[in-house]
Amino acid sequence: MRKLYVLIACEESQAECFAFRELGHIAYSCDIQPCRKSGNPYWHIQGDVTPLLQGDTAFNVQAGFLRTVPGWDLIIAHPPCTYLCKLSGCQLHIHGKTNWQRYRNLILGRRFFFQCLDAHAPYVAVENPIPLKLAKLPKPTCYASPHWYGVKYTKKTCYWLKNLPPLMPEIIYPGAKCYVTSSRGKYRSRTFPQLAQAIAKQWSEYILENEK
Fold first, then answer.
1. Average pLDDT of the chain to the nearest whole number
2. How far apart are CA 5 and CA 43, in angstroms?
3. Average pLDDT over residues 100-125
4. Would you say the pTM of this structure is higher than 0.85?
5. Is 147 or 84 the better-scoring residue by pLDDT?
6. Deepest in the core among 3, 19, 88, 181, taking most CB within 10 A?
């Protein structure tokens, strides 16, 4: 089996990175934050992901070693959603006044979103929550939720895809609860391992089959 070269942009948890590695592929996560203590610094790039999105194939991993890849087969990006998501809309206008700093961050977040969508790879996926209308993002290709993969929580997540099929449900958890109302802060953006495993399995199988 050919090994795919996979970049997971804006991933600190390494959930998807680990899922692809478990299948035998060569995956790296990248984030301005270091990977978690439970992560693998040999598989994590700490820094600005923009050069990698634009096609750079040489980089230093967090452990301090230079790595190179022949090219990225698949890039999955998780651009920050703080200013793009629908839930943030109520903070743009406070007491009848526009929060211009937040509006500026919305514009910058939208710009980075499109940088991710235009990433230099034959297969690209960009993930985000339901977007704010003011962000004027394109219509998502598909939606997914962790309860499709046996998790007891629902969390409607949007995916914008290039040359990839929509994610398909596998084991639906009955009576799942809403994760957004059951969690706080950065934990709302976590990727459940079950969803990460489904992403790695479904998309790697599709890419390899598509190459035959």
1. 90
2. 12
3. 90
4. yes
5. 147
6. 19
**Locus of tokens 């651009």:** 79
Look at the block and give the residue holding tokens 């990248």.
Answer: 30
Instruction: Report how far residue 117's alpha carbon sits from residue 2's, in angstroms, rounded to the nearest whole number.
Output: 25
Distance between CA atoms of 195 and 201, rounded to whole angstroms?
10
Structure tokens at 151: 């998790």
CB 95 within 8 A of CB 73: no
Q: pLDDT tens digit string along 160-191? A: 999 999 999 999 999 899 887 665 555 566 78
